[in-house]
Amino acid sequence: MTGAKFLSKEKLLDWLAELGQTRRVFMPVEEGGKIVFRPCTNGDTPALVRDASASPKGVVFPSSAELFRYTKTKARGGKSSMELKPGTEFEPALIFGTRPCGARGFTIFDRVYTGGKFNDPYYRAARENTLIVTLACEGPENTCFCNWVGSGPDDPTGSDVLATPVEGGFVLESVSERGEALLESPLLQPAEARTAEADSVKSRARAELPPARDISAAPQSIRALFDNQKFWDEVSSKCLSCGACTYLCPTCYCFTITDEDHGDSGKRLRSWDNCMSYQFSLEASGHNPRPTKAHRLRNRVGHKFSYYPQLHEGLLACCGCGRCIRSCPVSMDIREIVLDAIDRVQAKNCEVVHE
Ligand code: SF4
Ligand code: SF4
């Protein structure tokens, strides 16, 4: 691996412009009082403040993407044919300034869309053509719990380069071969003299996180409570089923397909979906296997802390970013639900009430 490099704050925009010669560079920018990831244009400066709501998920998995277009033709004699044209092509991209939780989120997606029996060509093309330069966190917010799920403020999982803020700039370390190539720039200097400073930024940030709670019993506890409607009714009582938590979550990967048909032509879209909505599991017959918000919250929490790890060698489908906690309009806290489930099962006070 190439040694670490130092990027001075003054050269940051030049480096991003250099990277932008071959790919679109997305970075967090302030827009309408919110931090969002969008392609940078001349004059943009990255908003490198910690903001739990900004997630880079949409760069690789857009909130709404055109999969293909179609044109229908009716020949004489009544026979119809349909011509398909590819939808929006994915342009090579680079994400600068996501936090470690955002980069780790993509590795949860990878196992579903490219790592198992299904291979999603749209996701694969986007993922393979996106480089990620992650910014290590200098300290946590009170909604962060990345250390509970085996991550941390300098977790390089899913990144190509890890950038650690130091006095006057950043220490850049390559995490992948692709990241190594990014560090071959005349704008960067060898960072030997600054790596100790970067190490102490990282250890300070780790030390500032409250000690991790042991949630290793979460998968079996949530399974044990599956039929305990009373528990799920209680923990979901204030939920609005608005779905804000799912849209902001960097590991929520469900989608819906819609066709926008204009008679003789149209397009097929893939858009983010939300398992907290009643319509998500509504079947064509009118039956809904998750008719109440309690059923839907059970699915959301169960999926992240029980069903997904069961399928993926114990890996939790949550990166502990706290976005859902910070952004929930009624202050639902997924940490409390998981701990509550563990406590109830451990205390054996779980009175099973079948639906
Ligand atoms: S953001 Fe909060 S209120 Fe809205 S669906 Fe999620 S948990 Fe329920
Ligand atoms: S469930 Fe909440 S804390 Fe976990 S990854 Fe999603 S938004 Fe972050």
Provide the descriptors you would attach to this structure in a database record:
single chain, 355 residues, alpha+beta, four-stranded antiparallel beta sheet, 12 helices, binds iron/sulfur cluster
SSE topology:
Layout: E1 5-8, H1 12-19, E2 24-31, E3 34-39, H2 57-60, E4 64-74, E5 80-86, E6 93-98, H3 100-113, H4 121-128, E7 130-135, E8 161-166, E9 169-174, H5 177-182, E10 189-190, H6 195-208, H7 218-224, H8 229-235, H9 244-248, E11 255-261, E12 265-272, H10 293-311, H11 323-327, H12 334-346
Parallel strand pairs: 2-6, 6-7, 7-8
Antiparallel strand pairs: 1-9, 1-10, 2-3, 4-5, 4-12, 8-9, 11-12
Helix pairs in contact: 7-10, 7-12, 8-10
Mind explaining what this structure looks like?
With 355 residues, this protein is an alpha+beta fold. The strands form two sheets. The chain has an eight-stranded mixed beta sheet with strand order 3-2-6-7-8-9-1-10. Strands 5-4-12-11 form a four-stranded antiparallel beta sheet, with no helix packed on it. The chain folds into two domains: 5-68 and 87-208, no CATH class; 218-346, no CATH class. The termini are far apart. The chain has helices at 12-19, 57-60, 100-113, 121-128, 177-182, 195-208, 218-224, 229-235, 244-248, 293-311, 323-327, 334-346, and strands spanning 5-8, 24-31, 34-39, 64-74, 80-86, 93-98, 130-135, 161-166, 169-174, 189-190, 255-261, 265-272. The radius of gyration is 23 Å and the shape is flat. Helix 7 packs across helix 10 (293-311) and helix 8 (229-235) crosses helix 10 (293-311). One iron/sulfur cluster (SF4) binds next to helix 11.
